[in-house]
Amino acid sequence: MPYELQELAAISGMPGLYRLVRAARHGVLVESLDEKATRTLAPARNKVSLLSEISIYTQDPEETVPLTEAFERIYQKHGATAPVTSKSSEGELTEFMASVIPDYDRDRVYLSDIKKLATWFSIVSKHVPYQEAATPAAAEETAEASAEPAGAEALNADGSSEAAAPKKSRKKSE
Fold it and tell me: How many other C-beta atoms lie within 10 A of the C-beta of residue 147?
């Protein structure tokens, strides 16, 4: 994924975007994505929406475009800065959205959603580094090299092999 959005969230009642730090007793401890990077507690009554779980409606009711993919398309077309802001005209915003996702659903994607997309992209591109997507072959090789199957043999320092012991569970077996 070009932008890592798993730990980034939008919180109802709180402006801007936040990085999730950890869960707390009465909510979630978050850090703002701005120059100050202040840490605050987002109360449990506020809705926390992870950016990695947000999608944009398309004309096909069966499909949506994940926000990560929308950010990737914006970056590929316009670089790290979007050509529109939340203050842009309605025509500029709809034209921008149509250039990024040509088949977006014009009935279910509102102007306010397009403004959020532009604002969120500028915040994320400023505070989260863009990572080039690895080619499928390179990603597959990396995954194969890092994944060791269960019960695989491990080599000792002297070159002899010994079967890897399975990890024990902390729970008592019943």
Answer: 8
Amino acid in position 4: E
- Tell me the residue type at 15: P
Cα(11)–Cα(118) distance, rounded to whole angstroms?
17
What does the block give as tokens for 72? Answer: 């990737």
- Do residues 26 and 41 lie in contact, with contact meaning Cβ atoms separated by under 8 Å? yes
Angle at 120 between CA 139 and CA 76, to 5 degrees: 45
Whether the per-residue pLDDT at 53 is higher than 80: the answer is yes
pLDDT at 43: 82
CB distance 41 to 2 below 8 Å: no
Partners of 22 in the β-ladder: 29
Rounded distance, CA 105 to CA 124, Å? 24
Q: What pTM, to 2 d.p., does this model score?
A: 0.69
Going by C-alpha positions, the residue among 135, 31, 117 that lies closest to residue 75 is: 117
